[in-house]
Batch of 2 targets.
Target 1
Amino acid sequence: MAGNNAVAYKSPGKVEVIDIDYPTFELKDGPGVNPANVGRKVPHGVILKTVATNICGSDQHMVRGRTTAPPDLVLGHEITGEVVETGPDVEFLQVGDLVSVPFNIACGRCRNCKERKTGICLNVNPDRPGSAYGYVDMGGWVGGQANYVLVPYADFNCLKFPDKDQALEKIMDLTMLSDIFPTGFHGAVTAGVGVGSTVYVAGAGPVGLAAATGALLLGAAVVIVGDMNADRLKQAASFGCETVDLTQGGPAEQIEQILGEPLVDCGVDAVGFEAKGHGAGASEAPATVLNSLMDITAAGGALGIPGLYVTGDPGGVDEAAKKGSLSLSLGTGWAKSLSFTTGQCPVMKYNRQLMMAILHDRVSIAKNVNAKAISLEDAPRGYAEFDSGAASKYVLNPNGYIKN
Ligand SMILES: NC(=O)c1ccc[n+]([C@@H]2O[C@H](COP(=O)([O-])OP(=O)(O)OC[C@H]3O[C@@H](n4cnc5c(N)ncnc54)[C@H](O)[C@@H]3O)[C@@H](O)[C@H]2O)c1
Ligand SMILES: [Zn+2]
Ligand SMILES: [Zn+2]
């Protein structure tokens, strides 16, 4: 049986490549596996040989020790792979198919899945609605930053690429379909972006850059990206975004310089609960982004909030933050009739359309997020560089499929 190397969380700041079991069609006990999921049969699953699997800001929350993730939890929810085995209940996928896997695990049978709310499937995580591979409190499905990974409810979850050779040529773009491209796009859609919109995206990490890309694809007139990281702002400017340097203070004044007023139609939070305050050297202030988006989004507008907020944060700045409570100026949002969309992106709502946009050269998501392929063994370096603010999206290449 083939060996299976995987990237595991060890302790705050540390990931390591470890040897794990080759998957079978059963969820076995292991670090972070919910007891109620141990022994769960997965005849509807496929085993994938991983083609590409990306490091995400969501992984970093765990790796920074900001969650209750246990040591040896195998990471990786952004998975693209080749089917090497199909369970007995799989009908429509075949060995050799190349597929993108939404990071949400969804059963395809529950009320929420039937309503395309696959980010809050009711049947895959015994703790709460919603699940993902390789993530704390998500049921314990083993992560895909590995040579091989099990994907449950595979007929429902997998998006098959129409042509294998073409897919491998565009793999650095297509690998973004498992999370950040749909997630950023969802942020833009739920912020109400359409033709002619003015948009502010907080955060120039990969999700922010994907949201900006999504906003441009949706026809926004002006997309402004704010961050305190100069390299990441340069990356945003490289594909036509305006930028706001938040080391100089809040975004309103700089937005006014760009648009003639300190207001945008649409606001996107691509930062989440580890947000820093505005101004040079500001420390963590978890409500900063939400409060400033309420200030600068025009009355009647909408906030798309893909940035992650948690129910518990061992490293929270104060007692309230440790329980996931933030000091929000909700009155501002209420007075302006703003609407809010939070939560996991239901990837399946968007991944096929965005795949078509990639395959037909309508969008260059890999270039916009500065995607970089590295080997699985190099994952610890990738995590460290990404954590230090590199303006790159790291794509792991565990089985050598990626040639460029
Ligand atoms: N909802 C979903 O389905 C989903 C999916 C993927 C990622 N996420 C979340 O999206 C967020 C972004 O992910 P990422 O991979 O781009 O992470 P990242 O950590 O690389 O990027 C976050 C960026 O925000 C910047 N930042 C910090 N404070 C800021 C502020 N006040 N204003 C503007 N920028 C600020 C940081 O400098 C950094 O560049 C994370 O919270 C991640 O967990 C959510
Ligand atoms: Zn992700
Ligand atoms: Zn479901």
Target 2
Amino acid sequence: MSIQLRVMNEGDLDQAFVLTQQLKWPHRRADWQQALQLGEGVAAERDGELIGTALCWRWGRDYATLGLVIVADAAQGKGIGQQLMQSVLDTLADSNVRLHATEAGKGLYEKLGFVAIGKVQQHQCRELGGIIAELPAAGQQLRDAQANDAERLTLLDHQAHGQYRPQLIAELLSHAERVRVLEQDGDIAGFACVRRFGHGYSIGPIIAHSLPQAILLVSQSLSDLSGQFVRIDTDAVSGLGEWLSAQGLVAVDAPTIMVKGTPWQPVAGGTQVFGLMTQAMG
Ligand SMILES: CC(C)(COP(=O)(O)OP(=O)(O)OC[C@H]1O[C@@H](n2cnc3c(N)ncnc32)[C@H](O)[C@@H]1OP(=O)(O)O)[C@@H](O)C(=O)NCCC(=O)NCCS
């Protein structure tokens, strides 16, 4: 029977959820729903059955991320993954595209022109112990984000990785469990978002100017989550990974960061990414 590629829609979510369950990926149906709402996807279908997906997120004119590239086990090795990828890439035209590759996906992405530029570390623990929150230094203040912080948070997020994500920030401000902002001398300098994801909670995005700022934000966020499953995905060179390991959030996986196009050059003195939204969305 022939395979059809078409635009993914809400009606695919139940079967998409089954695909990640079969891979033992942690996504809940609600995580799929959020991913599709914020982005767009291509579905591969055979006899009415969803056998493959690839999603992408356009973050402004120049940058996009790509993820949830899956082909059902029995349909792998027949070129479907490549067709799905090509179809998504065609829609992204001149964007610089970033993804986080599993070992299974890396070969396919290399064939399509993606280049490895680093590693992300997935840190997590099943039952978080009691974490003592670091305390703000002089001139620093922590508070919960308000709806009218959206513009400033979007700017700090954009500065950290070049992706312009107002729709994501709006979604987080309305639906995340908690978004903490750090003010430094009265200006917002960074933020960390606690969300439900997968087996429990995920902290990310985490955006700050420095590692001590990120540790302050993350330790405060973790101090609310004792006894919970918690996950944080951080760039291997961010420095946060060592601190997370010492708190009992061990590194369980290290996907490869791959880029097609020009990688983002951080702005001197600007913000940095200390935690991803998700591996798929970046
Ligand atoms: C990665 C995945 C989507 C590939 O789908 P697929 O349909 O099996 O891939 P294709 O058959 O289209 O292969 C495309 C090309 O990549 C190559 N390729 C695929 N997997 C590869 C691998 N692990 N190493 C090297 N090359 C690989 C194939 O040889 C093929 O090249 P060819 O056309 O020159 O022979 C699929 O293996 C999968 O769903 N894996 C589990 C989920 C996953 O890890 N997804 C990636 C998330 S980042």
